Amino acid sequence: MVIKYLLEKEFKQFFRNKFMPKLVILFPVMIIALMPWATTLDIKNINTVIVDHDVSSVSKELAETVNASSYFKLRDVVDSYEEAMTLVEFGDADLIVEIPAGFGDDLTRAGGSDILAAINTVNSTKGVLGQAYLQSLLQEFSARHVAASSAAALSPSVNISVKNMYNPLLDYKYTMIPGLMMVILVLLCGFLPAANIVQEKELGTIEQINVTPVSKFTFILAKLIPYWAIGLVALSFGFFLSWIIFGMVPVGSVLTIYFFSCLFILTMTGMGLIVSNKSSTMQQAVFVMLFFVMIFIMMSGLLTPVESMPDWAQAIAAFTPTKYLVNVLKCVYLKGSTVADLKTDLIALSVMAVVLNTWAILSYRKNN
Amino acid sequence: MEREIVIHTEELTKRFGNFTAVDRISFDVYKGEVFGFLGANGAGKTTAMRMLCGLSRPTSGTGTVAGYDISRQYEKIKSSIGYMSQKFSLYEDLKVWENIRLYAGIYGMKDKEIERKTAELLERLHFTRERNAMVRSLPLGWKQKLAFSVSIFHDPAIVFLDEPTGGVDPYTRRQFWEMIYEAADRGITVFVTTHYMDEAEYCDRVSIMVDGRIDALDTPANLKAQFGAESMDEVFRSLARKAERSE
């Protein structure tokens, strides 16, 4: 078996490298331990300034309620909108809540009142979420007051009770972590084989291999097996870290995740191979890979749901293997989906794996 | 006595776009001879050699190496030849014995046989102490000797050597040529390119390429007589003067 000798070589070279084995440990640590905190979309501590024209017990209570919420931080209570604007302009506040004169009376007697909220939307996510948080806070606040004063007098209103399924605490980290596992695999299994093959081209060692009777298929397989192994080891380490640090274990079967990860790794290594076959320098290979990896990560639904992208962007996302893996990871981790529930992803990833790897083997030329 | 032909080419040509790197070359190489393949830089030696090794496909013309057609059976050729490229191409991050084992394994040798032959080879090269040394730590001359030994480790019919002694000191070059003769004595045909004209004198026959064509092909003695020259150096210079391609 020729492949035995080639595999020996690949593994020896990998473990002899001073940097590579450390990278396999370092990557999951950085991505699982650090990224969830950095990519969180939970907005906390929005700096708020209240303009109180009412100066009543109700308005004071509202100010306290705002301050008590972990979403808002009350910077100041001022008398005029202009004063509040100055704070915003200096960057000391992002949200102005203007309480009109007579707010307390209107609320308790008439059962309703108007409040002006002005939000700095330079950071639009912060703005939109801040508005949503404020709305729900005010709803609760007014409901409490209206109910206390004139419970029976009011017409019945519709209350929506929301149950957050699969991620009851709406903790952003829980949606991020499964998706981040994809990033580990993309980086280790996409970049490394591509870089490895181009390096052999640059050193000239690949020519020595090309002049031997070793078949394309054997040579490529020997290049890929180590990275499949490395990818799965790093992934397992990622599982372990997310359990230790965040107490997260997949609701579904770990085997399902491994199964889909193997398929995904196949697509990524196939792609890396194509890029390395077409590139003659390391610079070119790394740059082209970076281009694709950026698109793959941004379009994957890791950071923003694919469903909220415009149709044409969704069409592009449909061609990224990352989209399917992120979906699988989230579904298995949070919902406990099984292979049967994930048929679309299974088909998409399988087709991509076959196409990319066939292309990879065809594009590797021992003779030109 | 009819000598056995191991390399045969007819009108072999390689074009890259408008540039004709190798221009209709025809020649034969006989079994067991040391065949010198000379030419100035850019004359097309390496391109011609790559076609013979099955690394590059001819644009036109035909050729056989070890009985296999170079356009169609190039993968078969690869089992019968050894190749040592201009660029040093053993793995620097593998040990001496690991490089030997890798290539021997690729050519289908068995573990036991590899082990036995490796010990023999290292003994012969006086490399036994360097068995576990990383190839990167060896001096250039040693690396070249090792690369040559690896290229003939599987007893190929023909070995192709592309400027094997580039950058090596005269003493090591001498040793290297002794190794080449030993290989030839074992019946391995040696096809070698070189820039050193003293090395050309060591060859049984020599061809000289100018601008992609073979302008002269004979034994060193006959070539010197033909050109009325004292040395191969003079022969080479009188031919190279005609070259229109620059480096």
Please give a structural write-up.
The complex is a heterodimer of chains A (368) and B (247). Chain A has two domains: 2-39 and 171-363, no CATH class; 46-150, abc type-2 transporter like domain (abc type-2 transporter like fold, 3-Layer(aba) Sandwich), CATH 3.40.1710.10. In chain A, 66% of the residues lie in helices and 6% in strands. Chain A is built from 14 helices and four strands. A four-stranded mixed sheet of chain A has the order 2-1-3-4, with helices on both faces. In chain A, strand 1, helix 3 (57-68) and strand 2 form a beta-alpha-beta unit. The model of chain A is unreliable at 152-157 (pLDDT under 50). Chain B is an alpha/beta fold. Chain B has a six-stranded mixed sheet with strand order 6-7-8-3-9-10, with helices on both faces. A four-stranded antiparallel sheet of chain B has the order 2-1-4-5, covered by helices on one side. Chain B is globular, with a radius of gyration of 18 Å. Chains A and B meet through helix 1 and helix 8 of A and helix 2 and helix 3 of B.
**Strand residues, percent of chain A:** 5-15%
| CATH homology group of the domain at 5-89 and 156-240 in chain B | P-loop containing nucleotide triphosphate hydrolases
- Sheet-strand content of chain B, in percent, reads 25-35%
The order of strands across the largest sheet of chain A is 2-1-3-4
User: Helices and strands of chain B: which structural class?
Assistant: alpha/beta
Classify the oligomer. heterodimer
Distance between the termini of chain A: 27 Å
Q: Approximately how much helix is present in the residues of chain B?
A: 25-40%
Number of strands of chain A: 4
Number of strands of chain B: 10
